[in-house]
Amino acid sequence: MDDHSTQFSLSLWDYALILYARPGVAKACLALQDDHGADVCELLWLCWLNRLDLTTDANAAATLAPIRHQQAALTRLLRERRRELKPHAQPDSSLAQWRKTIKNAELAAEQGTLMQLQALAEHGRGVRSLRHNDAPLITRLVGHLGCHDSTISGHLRVLVAQSHTDSIEHSGAGPLEPRP
């Protein structure tokens, strides 16, 4: 990507919230995360990049390494603690409130990750323009996950189908397109 100061009409965070709320996407993303070790933030980022006619470049893995480390060290740890508390957190108990606080911290960490991923795209780091001979999004997502089976493909099909809908817009932001 040549313009290293591109701004986007719809932030990755807003796009992720819209896409994640679409039918079947949350369930597919959680299955990919829990059953196959996928990073949902990265999957949503890859879909967002695709909408912008961008994809990852050969340096993406190195560029993503610090973000992946942060996800492993912080976000996943928060998720594990939150899930461990679930069976013990009775409604209206102090433990339930503590679990909610952890959930909010996890969400804030995910939002921070999405902001970092968006910044990579804005600065042209780890991304490039799509080429006519690039594989379709679903093939790139399978490659990103590094494994392929029918379960993964089914979940990814849901994600891809919902990411291709034209109705992914944000009130006041207009359609998802790069802004100079």
How are the elements arranged and paired?
Elements: E1 7-8, H1 12-21, H2 25-36, H3 40-51, E2 54-56, H4 60-85, H5 94-122, E3 127-129, H6 137-145, H7 150-163, E4 169-170, E5 174-175, E6 178-179
Antiparallel strand pairs: 1-6, 2-3, 4-5
Short description:
The protein has 7 helices and 6 strands, in the order βαααβααβααβββ. By secondary structure, the protein is mainly alpha-helical.
Question: How would you explain this protein's 3D organization?
Answer:
- This protein has 180 residues and is mainly α.
- It has seven helices and six strands; from the N terminus they run βαααβααβααβββ.
- It has helices spanning 12-21, 25-36, 40-51, 60-85, 94-122, 137-145, 150-163; strands at 7-8, 54-56, 127-129, 169-170, 174-175, 178-179.
- The strands form three sheets. A two-stranded antiparallel ribbon has the order 1-6. Strands 2-3 form a two-stranded antiparallel sheet. It has a two-stranded antiparallel sheet with strand order 4-5.
- A hairpin with a 3-residue loop joins β4 and β5 (174-175).
- α1 packs across α3 (40-51).
- The chain is globular and about 55 Å long.
- Residues 1-5 and 170-180 have low confidence and may be disordered.
